[in-house]
Design a protein that fits this description.
The protein has about 350 residues and is α+β, with helices and mostly antiparallel strands. About 30% of the residues lie in helices and about 15% in strands.
């Protein structure tokens, strides 16, 4: 339907379209605004309602896509793959999340654009420049323009668009909220505990065999793990990051700290291998001084004096594990660490 098919009295009022003509005296005359051309939605309410339903449909699809995003995140396994022609094999979860999130965003944007292009006023308005400081009259004009714009948007009259738009905008942020699940679950107190417990044998990391006191020579440093922890276990890396242990044998008379001596066995001391600075594995041992050095930031610990910090940024001494010997003559733990292993900030948890 064109404007020629509508009676003149039904057409929206035209704005002033007078055009100045450039001549020799005024070569840069203001050309003014071209005559306004009415859209079909301006002159046909049925077309306007079709556009309204289109915008509402886009907002509704956005809501459905957001629900699909959340459902995909919860229901699709993270290791599932699918074949998508012509791309090939893709991770099903990533594909579903990208598709639904993209659809939700696109439909909100497309609905807003279609609403503005077909239903909001498109009359061009020329306004004079004014000083930056707003005068009371300008403020009053801004408020009047705002009210006029709100009226022309028909947000109050076209409730279907308003309600579906609010629904789409309200649901979409849920996509980001659901993603917060990957920040959890909260660690609780599990960072304070390791696999060490009373009766757990000390197993050599290299030979995978339990150790007897005679296997540990004076001046040697040996790395051990808890009995039952194997490298092919699913959670091996997580558990060894807390339970990694180093044992050193020092002449009992050289042990300076009373508690360290009481928790040792015949001069064999067991300390956490995890540096208390940022969690690097400690591996450099100086036999004469009984010092161990973290290779990351050079934190140095004195194993003969309770593994206290003598240099570097580490916050506190290495936790010591109480050890003994079982009836079969193997070294065993007498419990778990008395304090959290690793970086000092875990103590605040």
């Amino acid at each position: 339907m064109s404007s020629q098919d509508i009676p003149e009295e039904n057409l929206p009022a035209e704005h002033d379209a007078r055009v100045a003509v450039a001549d020799e005296k005024n070569p840069f005359a203001d050309p003014g605004l071209a005559p306004h051309e009415h859209r079909v939605q301006d002159i046909d309410e049925r077309a306007a309602r079709r556009s309204e339903r289109t915008v509402a449909l886009l907002f509704t699809v956005s809501m459905l896509a957001t629900v699909g995003f959340i459902a995909s995140y919860v229901a699709i396994p993270h290791d599932k793959s699918i074949f998508v022609f012509p791309i090939g094999h893709l991770n099903a979860l990533n594909f579903a999340l990208g598709l639904t999130l993209g659809a939700a965003l696109f439909c909100i944007g497309a609905g807003a654009v279609h609403w503005a292009r077909t239903l909001m006023s498109d009359v061009e308005v020329a306004d004079d420049r004014h000083a930056i400081a707003a005068e009371p009259e300008v403020k009053a004009k801004v408020m009047a323009d705002f009210k006029q714009g709100a009226k022309e948007s028909a947000l109050g009259r076209r409730k279907l668009i308003r309600n579906t738009m609010f629904g789409a905008l309200a649901l979409f942020p849920l996509s980001g909220i659901v993603l917060l699940r990957d920040l959890g679950p909260l660690p609780g107190t599990k960072l304070r505990h390791t696999l060490w417990s009373k009766g757990k044998l000390l197993v050599n990391m290299n030979t995978n065999e339990p150790l007897r006191p005679s296997d540990v020579a004076v001046g040697s440093l040996t790395f051990v793990k808890p009995e039952g922890l194997e490298e092919h276990d699913h959670d091996f890396q997580n558990e060894i990051a807390k339970a990694a242990l180093m044992i050193v044998r020092i002449q009992p008379d050289d042990i300076k700290d009373k508690q360290s001596y009481e928790w040792s066995h015949e001069g064999i001391l067991a300390y956490s291998k995890i540096c208390t600075h940022v969690g690097c594995p400690i591996s450099l041992y100086e036999q004469q001084t009984h010092h161990v050095l973290c290779p990351c930031h050079q934190s140095t610990f004195d194993l003969a004096d309770g593994a206290r910090v003598i240099f570097g940024p580490a916050g506190h001494a290495l936790p010591q594990l109480r050890i003994g010997v079982n009836d079969e003559g193997y070294l065993e733990a007498l419990g778990d660490f008395e304090e959290p292993v690793g970086p000092a900030f875990w103590e605040r948890g």
